[in-house]
Amino acid sequence: SVALMWFRADLRLHDHPALRAAVAAGSDGVVPLFVLDDHFDLDALAVRGAHLARLLADFDDRIGGLHVVRGRPEVEVPRIVRETGADSVHVTAGHTPYAMRRDAKVAEALDVPLVASGSGYAVAPGTVRKGDGTGYKVFTPWFRAWQGHGAERPLRPVDPTTVPWVRPGASAPLPSTDAPDGVDLPAAGEVAALEHWRAWLGDHVDDYAEERDRPDLDTTSRMSVHLKWGTVHPRTLLADLAQRSSDGARAYERQLAFREFYADILHERPDSAYGYYHRAYERMQYDEPAGDFEAWKQGRTGFPFIDAGMRQLLAQGWMHNRLRMAVASFLVKDLHLEWTHGARWFLERLVDADLANNQHGWQWVAGCGTDAAPYFRVFNPVGQGRRLDPDGTYIRRWVPELRGVEGPKVHEPWTLDDPPADYPPPLVDHAQERLEALRRHDAM
Ligand code: FAD
C-alpha cells in the first residue's frame, strides 16, 4: 500500500512518530508532501517565509526530493491522494486553533484515513488534566503534573535511503530564501539544529540557571526556532537533559515545560490566541497606536535597553527573553497600547514566532494572562538594563549610536553633558506613565 506523509512543522527524520507510521503503512511507497498553505501570507511574513524556504530546500536535499504544492490543504491533500492512490495520510497532530480547523476540514474532504501520530510536545496539549478532568490555570501545579506524566523515549531516526519515496510530478516553486532587510537568520534544518544543540549542551547548559537572564552574555540556547519548526523534538532534548545533574539542566527543563504549558492553555482556550485570557482587561482604557508605536517598532524610543531589544529583533528575527518582557511591558504600560499590537509585530518579525508562547508571553507581561504578574509590577526600562546588562555591552552591541558612550551612562544617555545627536531623547517619562498605567488599571 501507499502512504502519504504530509509534513508540516516537523521536517526531520529523527524521533518522528508520524513518519515512522507512514513508513510502516507505505510498503509500496511513501509520498513526502508539503503544502505551502494559502492561509499564511509568506510575502507579509517574510522572515518566517525565508526560513521556511531554507528548511524546505534542506529537507528536499536530505530525502532526495520533497513534493511541494501550493494552495488550500483541504483541496491539495485529497488531490495528491487521488493522483498517487495513497491509502492513508499521516501527520503530526497540530494544536493551534487554525491547525485543528484545517485538519478537521482535510479529514472531511478525504476518503482515506487521516492518521495523527505524536505532537510537537513531550506531552501532547490536552493531556495534563486535574482529577476532575479540567485544565490547570497556574503553571506550578501543572508543572508537577506534567513531570509526573513523564516523557516517552525518543524514537530511532528513519534512514531516508531505505524509504520507497514516491513523487507525483514537479514541485511548486519555493518562496524566496532571501531574508528581508538582510535579517541574519539562524541555520535551518535538522542537522544544523542537532549540531547546535549538542554544542550548546556541552558548553552552556550547566551554567544556564545563572546566565539565562543576562542578554549581554548571550548564552541561552536559541533552540526556540528549531522547536518552533519541529526540526528537533523536545523529547530528544529532555532525554539529553535527563543525563545531567546540574541546576542548569533542571532550569532548562522548566523552560521547555513553559512551552508545553502555553500550548496546553491555548488548546483549552483557543480564544486566548487573539483575545484576552482574563476578559476583564478588555475594558481597560488603551490608546490607539500612532507615532509612538512606530518608534517602538524601529527601536527609537530613547530608552537604550528597549531599543537594543527591538533592534535585535529587526536584525536577527530573535530577541532575548528578558528583552521580550521589557519591551512588551514598555508597549503596554508606558505607551498604553493593547498587547495585541505588539504581539502582532512579534509574530511578523520573529523567526521563532510561536502562537502559544508569543500570545501568552505577551499576556503574562500585560497582566491579563495565566499566572499573571501583578499589574502593578511595571518593568523599569532603565533599571532592567542596569541589572541585566550591567556594563551596557548588550546596548552597545545593538545601538551603534551609543557605542561611544562609556560606563553606566549608556543606560541614560540623556544625562550626558553632550548626548549623541543621532540618538532620540526618551519618548515618555517612565515615572509618570507608570502612574498612568496604574490609574487605568484601578479605573478598570
Ligand atoms: P532558552 O532560554 O534557551 O529556553 C529554551 C527553550 O525553552 C526555548 O527555546 C523555548 O522553547 C522555551 N522557553 C523558554 N522561555 C520560555 C517562555 N517564557 N515561554 C515559553 N517557552 C519558553 N518563545 C517562542 O518560542 N516564540 C515566541 O514567539 C515567543 N514570544 C514571546 C513573547 C514575549 C512577550 C515573551 C515574554 C516571551 C516569548 N517567548 C517566545 C518565550 C521566550 O522569550 C523564548 O522562547 C526564548 O527567548 C527563546 O530563546 P532561547 O531558545 O535561547 O531560550
From TrEMBL:
Entries under SUPFAM superfamilies matching the protein: Cryptochrome/photolyase FAD-binding domain (SSF48173), Cryptochrome/photolyase, N-terminal domain (SSF52425)
Cofactor(s) it depends on: FAD
Binding site for FAD: 208, 220-224, 252, 255-262, 352-354
The entry's keywords: Chromophore, FAD, Flavoprotein, Lyase
A single BP term in Gene Ontology: response to light stimulus
Comment on bound cofactor: Binds 1 FAD per subunit.
Photolyase/cryptochrome alpha/beta domain mapped to chain residues: 1-122
GO molecular function, one term: FAD binding
Record-stated family: Belongs to the DNA photolyase family.
Protein name: Deoxyribodipyrimidine photo-lyase
Biological source species: Aeromicrobium flavum
Lineage summary: Bacteria, Bacillati, Actinomycetota, Actinomycetes, Propionibacteriales
